[in-house]
Write a structure and sequence with these properties.
alpha/beta, 3 domains, 612 residues, 41% helix
Length: 612
């Protein structure tokens, strides 16, 4: 008001007529007041009505209630903070965390079976990828985002495979003088290579990285694709596929018979990752995703367990009324140390141990076995060119008994070899002197069926060989790189079989699907042509290379899934263990402990054939 009055006074003073000198002083005072009012108006806000909210009349506000204190104080939800800043992609902290998450996931494998840790490692892996994703549109991603996702996947895989495959180094210590240089390659070199598949999975998942459930589906499908490629590229190495972590027991194995291992891997990663939806700090989660994400996770677990329990209960009910024939088997586990297995000084002693375990009387006082099974390459002689060894086997078998022996079969390249069904020569007493190998030959890792008369009536060769163990890929390149030790070890490599063979016992009553060593970790090998005609699967192996480590236990866990997939009983005979009888639903019916030198007699029920 004062300012408006000053402005009005200045205008009034300007319109005043000339006055006598007595009034001149008053006119000058009024002009000075007007000038001072204009200067003041420049320093203060505009008057009310000219956009001044301070001077504008305010509505009366309701008095606020005093804040409650104590237990009645209202709780204000504070947003959670990510354990890692969602800033620039990459970073050593993310790599270290991804490596630790891979270590945790590996603890779900045998012999630990800490499956709940996967519900920690995979949700945090999702959040790690959330932290490097700039938005919901792939167009916003740059090369550094793809590289950051691949790095997170690689370190996750490196931790997973390092913790799951470290025991491979034990195989190099058997002959440390020749293979000691390769010890670091087993626990670190191979995991570093295999981790590349998980790097590919993480980078591919970023293509469909969207808010909510879409990114969980993308991650699970990407990991399933990576595991499929790991099982087929470079002859394949599907050891410890992520799907195995979700099948710790027979109840959870039954889903594998319906959808297969690759689909189980996708379903496992999807279920493990669902708890990530409950982490509200992630910009990729919606408000309602937390509740239904956890509910879906619990529902999938319950459905898997319910289906497995129902299938096992139905199997037990059907077994009570099924008409079967009994095949009595003997599993021979000699537990010969790997350092002594091929030593020429002790192979006679090893052969004697095998024969003694084969002709021992049954522990239960029952009938003698119909078929005796020896482990992979357990026979220390070449039976094709050692008639004396076959003669000793013949004397150890009862009439009508059969021996399925793991042995090295020799095939001449040009010369004529003895007939596969030829009988060993009589009168040969010196086993060592009887063995003569031809100059040009092929080696095969085989199962030989030998009858009580000394005939080799059937055989099956290994088709899927172990790279760097049974043959050397690109031997010329190895010699060019001056890997003399590796090249020398592969101077006499095994040859792969041209086709998968089945072994049929005399009379055609029982047909065997033979899987030698790590052939049993490949689902497609058990689905080979003609495999449906088999009545039983027999897997012979030699895990003595790996000692008392998680290796033999992981091998057994993977072999059990082949029985579930083919719905056939599986017999596993290992040199040092674990030899076991597994029924058609993956249940362990009988087993010998690791490193125990013993035999196991079992009765295997087989369905009657319609046309024997």
């Amino acid at each position: 008001m004062l300012i408006q009055g000053c402005n009005m006074t200045a205008k009034t003073a300007a319109r005043l007529p000339l006055l006598p000198p007595a009034f001149s002083a008053g006119r000058r005072i009024m002009m000075r007041l007007a000038c001072s009012g204009r200067l003041l108006s420049r320093r203060l806000p505009p008057p009310a009505g000219a956009g001044n909210p301070v001077a504008a009349p305010q509505k009366p506000q309701r008095p606020q209630k005093p804040a409650k204190t104590g237990k009645h104080r209202p709780k204000q939800r504070q947003p959670a903070a990510l354990p890692f800043p969602p800033a620039q992609p990459g970073g050593r902290r993310r790599w270290a965390l991804a490596f630790i998450l891979g270590l945790l996931a590996a603890l779900a494998l045998p012999p630990f079976y800490l499956v709940p840790l996967c519900f920690i490692s995979f949700p945090l892996l999702v959040l790690l990828l959330d932290s490097i994703a700039p938005g919901a549109a792939p167009a916003l991603y740059s090369g550094r985002h793809w590289r950051a996702a691949a790095a997170i996947g690689w370190f996750f895989g490196f931790g997973y495979f390092t913790a799951g495959l470290w025991w491979l180094a034990n195989a190099m210590t058997v002959d440390i003088g020749q293979f000691g240089w390769a010890i670091p390659l087993a626990p670190f070199g191979l995991p570093a290579f295999l981790a590349g598949y998980y790097a590919l999975a993480a980078a591919l998942a970023l293509i469909f990285w969207r808010r909510g459930l879409a990114r969980i589906i993308s991650l699970s499908l990407s990991f399933a694709l990576a595991e499929y490629l790991r099982g087929v590229l470079f002859t394949g190495f599907p050891w410890n596929a992520l799907g195995y972590t979700a099948m710790p027991g027979p109840v959870f194995m039954q889903i594998d018979a319906v959808i297969g291992l690759d689909a189980v891997t996708a379903l496992a990663v999807f279920t493990y990752s669902l708890p990530a939806l409950a982490f509200r700090a992630s910009p990729f989660n919606t408000g309602s995703s937390a509740r239904w994400g956890c509910c879906l996770c619990l529902l999938l677990i319950a459905a898997d367990a319910g289906f497995g329990g129902w299938r096992l209960a139905r199997a037990d009910k059907q077994a009570q009324t099924a008409e079967v024939r009994i095949l009595r088997l003997r599993l021979v586990q000699p537990a010969i140390p790997q350092a002594e297995k091929q030593s020429p000084h002790v192979r006679e002693r090893n052969f004697t141990r095998l024969l003694a375990l084969s002709r021992a009387a049954p522990k239960d006082g029952g009938k003698r076995p119909d078929l005796i099974i020896w482990p992979e390459t357990s026979m220390p002689y070449l039976p094709d060119y050692n008639p004396a060894a076959l003669a000793r086997i013949s004397r150890s078998l009862q009439p009508g008994q059969m021996l399925l022996a793991g042995a090295v079969r020799v095939e001449e390249r040009q010369a004529v070899k003895p007939a596969a069904g030829g009988r060993s020569k009589a009168g040969q007493k010196d086993t060592e002197a009887a063995e003569e190998a031809p100059p040009r030959y092929r080696f095969y890792n085989s199962m030989l069926l030998i009858d009580s008369a000394g005939y080799i009536t059937a055989y099956a060769d290994k088709k899927h060989l172990v790279p760097f163990g049974e043959y050397l890929p690109l031997p010329g390149l190895a010699r060019f790189l001056r890997l003399q030790a590796l090249a020398a070890a592969a101077a006499g490599p095994y040859s792969a079989a041209g086709q998968r063979r089945l072994i049929t016992l005399p009379g055609g009553a029982v047909t065997i699907l033979p899987l030698i060593c790590y052939e049993a970790i490949f689902p497609r090998e058990s689905r080979a042509e003609g495999a449906k005609q088999a009545d039983i699967i027999i897997n012979t192996t030699n895990d003595a290379w790996f000692g008392n480590t998680p290796g033999p236990r992981q091998h057994l866990a993977q072999v059990r899934l082949r029985a579930v997939e083919q719905q056939k009983p599986l017999i596993r005979v290992a040199n040092s263990g674990i030899s076991a009888y597994i029924d058609a639903y993956g249940r362990l019916r009988a087993a010998l402990p690791l490193n125990a030198s013993d035999f196991l007699d079992i009765d295997v029920p087989l369905p009657l054939k319609a046309n024997p």
